[in-house]
Structure formats: structure tokens, C-alpha cells
Amino acid sequence: MALAQGGGAKLSIREQLENRERKYLSGFATLAAESAGRVRAEEPCPVRTCFQRDRDRIIHLSHAFRRLAHKTQVFIAPREDHLRTRLSHTLEVSQIGRTIAKALRLNEDLVEAMALGHDVGHTPFGHAGEWALDQAYRRYDPAAGFAHAAHSVRVLEILERDGQGLNLTRDTLAGIAQHSKGAKDTRDALHPADGESLESMVLRIADRIAYLNHDLDDCLRAGVLEPGEVPRECLEVLGERHSERVGAMVEDVIAGSEGMPHLEMSEGIAEAMDVLKDFLFERVYLGPALLRAREQVQGVIERLFDLYMADEEAFEADIGAVPGFPQMRARAVCDYIAGMTDRFARTKYEQLFLPSAFPQF
Questions:
Q1: Rounded to two decimals, what is the model's pTM?
Q2: Closest CA to 132 of 325, 296, 310
Q3: For the chain, what is the mean pLDDT?
Q4: What digits encode the pLDDT tens for the residues 148-182?
Q5: Is the distance from CB of 137 to CB of 127 less than 8 angstroms?
Q6: Which single residue of 13, 31, 79, 313 has CA 20 to 30 Å from 241?
Q7: pLDDT (tens digit, 9 = 90+) per residue, 242-280?
Q8: How far is CA 56 from CA 81, 109, 242, in A?
Q9: What torsion do the CA atoms of 74, 273, 280, 71 make, to the nearest 10 degrees?
Q10: Is the dihedral of CA 139, 140, 144, 145 positive or negative?
């Protein structure tokens, strides 16, 4: 498991991997040996770098990661088995991010860890649930609010393992915190924050490439959109098929960013992506096809939040001891609802608000 160096001390597998990173990775890459470290110092693993260890903790120890399989990506309670879930979205982001990182000789392990953890803080019912939870939370604590990127960090740092957190590296957590740019244009999404790693920027663009393409694919499969409705200028630039569009975006990022201290895309591809993004926001995310579902989601989230804030028995039964301050109680309710899967949220709503069948056997 170790390698002798010049007849002296043996190098562990991890140290060999770290040496390979120093020799092979770009000068702009984040090296595992130079990680910003963890909040709680730990003995290094003999066979894995710190970023590989982060990845493994998310996969093996995170309950929130497993629940992503039962959280909506776009459609609420879909009956079509092949539509994406939040977990399949996460895997697609990871694959795209790793492809870009490998081509640019960045730290693939760090990108993978960030990608696997980037959405563990997402609510039930997709972005409709996120908007509804943000509004419900602010009614009880106006100084607060809910954003899934920040909540993903909270889940991994604080809530997992009964309050111990996973003690991931600061590098992984920073990328997760910075991954979401909402409806901003692609060039704005590429703009780095102060001190942001290239791997973090790869995560952000990989997230956008993934959701633009698979959300369009899902909408076409579900009949929410017809092929002829997709803006023609997008298809002419990006391609007619799903694989062509993903490939065009990924290859453009790689071509524009090779040897650069930041990520770049060509004007034509970036503009086509923005046209597609704006089209999906107008027609799907905020469009009439999902309006009724969004209203229903808002009703479910708001009623659950209000009940747990007012009902001591329900709070203690489902969440725990009642906090002493309203803000603390609202924080606990927000954490609890955010962690629900779509199925669990519907079940709780039925239990708490709908009459039970009678007689019961």
C-alpha cells in the first residue's frame, strides 16, 4: 500500500495521488494537498485524497443525498417513469462536470464531490417548493429566507448525522454554496466570485448545461412542449438532438477555457443557451402548464409550515422539543420541511389535514 522514496520513508497511496496531481494538473487547478482543510481537523486517509473522501461521505453517509431519488426536478408527482428526479439531475451534473474538469486538467475529484452534494438542500416539489418555503419562512422570520444552495451547505455542515455534519473540506462546501445563479445569463454565471476556484465554476456551468438539456428533454417527453415550439435559433446553433446539444455546450466550454484562469464560452453558444433558458422559464418554470401544480405546492408548504408553528403537539411529535424563540422554531420547521421528499410531504399533508377513512381496521 506504500511506495519507498529514495530508500527513505514510504509514501502512502494518498501521497502518491497527491504527487500525481502536482505533476499532471493545470497550474490553475485546486490541489488536494493544498486544500483549505476541514473545520474539524482529521487524520488523513491513507488511500484517498481529501476530496475523494468528501465524495464518499456524501454518497455513503448523507441521508439527504439518498432522498434526492424521491424529489422532483421539474414535474410534480410525475407518472412517467423516465422523467428526471433530483438524483438523476445530480448524476448528470457530476458527469458533465467531470468531463470538463478532466479536459481542462482540473481537480476531477473536487468537482465530483461538489456536484454530488450541490442539491442535497433542495426542497420537495422542485423550484416551486423552494419558492413556497422561502415565502413561508419569511412570514415568521423576515430577516431569514430559504435558498437551496445555502441550505445544501447547512445540511452537510450541521444537519447530517444528527447534528454532527459530515465535516467536508471548505473547498467542497464553497463550491456548493456558489453553484446557483438562478435566471442570470450564462456569461454572468461564468463570472467568478472573489477567490472562487475553477472547479467551483465548472460545477456552476455543468449544472446549467445539465438542467437546460434534460428539462427540455423531459418537457418534450411529457408533451408539455412540442418540438416545433423550441426556438429555432437554439436548435440551429446547439443541435437537433439532446446529445448534440450537450456536446456542443461542453465542447465550447472546453475550447474557450483551455489554459485560462477562468471559464469562457463563445458568444454564439452562450446566447443560444440564454435563449433556451429564457424560453424554459417563460413556458415551463413560470408558465401556464405548471401553474396549477405550483399553486397546490404553495398551499401544501404554507399549511404545513403554519401548522408546525402553531401546534405544539405536532411540532414535538415530528420535529422535536419546542425551541424557546419563534425564530428558532421557524428555522427548525424550515429544516424539517426542506428535508421532505415529495411523497413524504404529501403523506404528511394527508395525515394532518384530511380526514381518515372510517371505520379503521
A1: 0.94
A2: 296
A3: 93
A4: 999 999 999 999 999 999 999 999 999 999 998 77
A5: no
A6: 79
A7: 999 999 999 999 999 999 999 999 999 999 999 999 999
A8: 28, 10, 30
A9: 10
A10: negative
CA distances from 262 to 173, 191, 202 (A): 20, 8, 10
Angle, helices 242-257 vs 198-222, to 10°: value is 170
Residues in the chain: 361
What's the distance, CA 140 to chain centroid? 26
First to last CA, the chain: 60
Confidence band of 82 (pLDDT split at 50, 70, 90): confident
How far apart are the C-alpha atoms of 208 and 179, rounded to whole Å? Answer: 10
Q: CB within 8 A of 56, min separation 6: which ones?
A: 48
Query: In this predicted structure, which of 38-47, 160-169, 304-313, 352-361 has the lowest mean pLDDT?
Result: 352-361
Cα–Cα distance measured from residue 217 to residue 178, given in angstroms and rounded to the nearest whole number: 26
Backbone φ, ψ for residue 55 (5° rounding): -55, -45
Element (H, E) at 10: strand 10-12
Give the whole-angstrom CA distance, residue 343 versus residue 241: 32
> Which residues have a Cβ under 8 Å from the Cβ of 258 and sit 6 or more positions away?
103, 104
DSSP H stretches of helix in the chain:
13-24, 50-61, 63-67, 86-103, 108-117, 126-140, 148-154, 160-163, 170-177, 186-190, 198-222, 232-238, 242-257, 267-280, 291-310, 312-318, 326-338, 342-353
Least confident of 3-7, 8-12, 247-251: 3-7
Distances from the Cα of 191 to the Cαs of 154, 186, 187, 255, 263, in angstroms?
A: 24, 9, 6, 17, 8
Given this structure, which CATH class describes domain 8-342? mainly alpha
Retrieve residue 149's grid coordinates. 444552495
Interhelix angle 326-338/291-310, nearest 10 degrees: 140
Which grid cell is 236? 440551429
**DSSP class per residue in 211-248:** HHHHHHHHHHHHTSS-GGGS-HHHHHHH-SSHHHHHHH
